[in-house]
Amino acid sequence: MLNLDCVPISTYCKETGETAEAINKRLQRGVWFEGVQVLKVEGVKERWIDLSEVAKWARQNRQNSRAV
């Protein structure tokens, strides 16, 4: 198994079950940012997802499941 920090959006969607539309909506709403979670790579048509930034975002925005 490869340990990658960034993957093409098509790979991210295939592996996570998320859609490119959902990613675009996050970008439009300012939940994710181009240059942070989503990267445009020079000379490459497809955008890439920075998995370490997505993991940081998920940890910062997770719901606290512990009873208060």
Task: Write down how many β-strands occur, each being a DSSP E stretch of 2 or more residues.
Answer: 3
End-to-end gap: 39 Å
Alpha-carbon Rg, integer: 13 Å
Placed side by side, the strands forming the largest sheet appear as 1-3-2
Major sheet:
3 strands, antiparallel
Helix content: 40-55%
SS class: alpha+beta
Low-confidence stretches: none
Task: Explain this structure.
This is Excisionase. The protein has three helices and three strands. With 68 residues, the protein is an alpha+beta fold. A three-stranded antiparallel sheet has the order 1-3-2.
Gist of the model:
This is Excisionase. With 68 residues, this protein is α+β, with helices and mostly antiparallel strands.
Helix/strand layout:
Blueprint: E1 6-8, H1 9-16, H2 20-29, E2 38-39, E3 48-50, H3 51-61
Antiparallel strand pairs: 1-3, 2-3
